[in-house]
Amino acid sequence: MLRFYKINQNAISPSFGTKQSACFDLSACFVGNNLTKIKAYSAMNVMMELDCCSYEQDTFNLIIPADFRVLIPTGLIFDIPQGYSVRIHPRSGLSFKQGLVLANSEGVIDSDYIQECFIMVKNDSMSRITIKHGDRIAQGELVKSLDYSIEECYTTPQQKTDRIGGFGSTGTHNRSYIV
Fold it and tell me: I need a surface site. Which of 4, 56, 75, 149 has the fewest CB within 10 A?
């Protein structure tokens, strides 16, 4: 079971879109946050703060300029069971239709992280994108973590298959396999 705590009572509870959804939706939380500045980086890697704009009483939205990266608050802290992590994925519709992607491709929240969950997004389009309080901006997934160690080896790893090369090389060879 994944539990969450609302540090902002206006935060939207994570929820599954359908009974068969693998991931739960995460929403922006700007209401009652006393948060009028959002940490952002420009395309030139200049750190700045973007102002949230009021569009209703005590409700704010955020306009993300083209090619900017921002941290969007969720108002939530996750209580992740030991031996698990939460993986944050982009929402396919937002990525395809508006160009709003995760700046780090996939976010990882470790079980020992007990601070507010922020979603690191990037406006990958050439237009401004507006995010309102309650907009679903990402999706999360509870994932079992493997218990493993990392150890240096002192001999070159041996070939395990007939693979040659990388970075697209598996699609360039004329191979025929019997299935």
Answer: 149
Between these two residues, 102 and 53, which has the higher pLDDT value? Answer: 102
Task: For 84-140, write each residue's pLDDT tens digit.
Answer: 999 999 999 999 999 999 999 999 999 999 999 999 999 999 999 999 999 999 999
Q: Which residues neighbour 142 within 8 Å (Cβ) at sequence distance 6 or greater?
A: 2, 80, 84, 85, 86
Give CATH superfamily name and number for 3-9+30-144.
Deoxyuridine triphosphatase (dUTPase) (2.70.40.10)
CA distances to 92, 121, 133 from 54, in Å: 28, 21, 10
Q: How far apart are CA 108 and CA 149, in angstroms?
A: 19
Q: Are 52 and 131 in contact (CB under 8 A)?
A: no
If you ran DSSP here, which 8-state letter would residue 97 be given? Answer: H
Rounded to two decimals, the pTM is 0.84
Q: Are 165 and 25 in contact (CB under 8 A)?
A: no
Residue 22 and residue 120: Cα distance in Å, rounded? 21
Structure tokens at 148: 């493993």
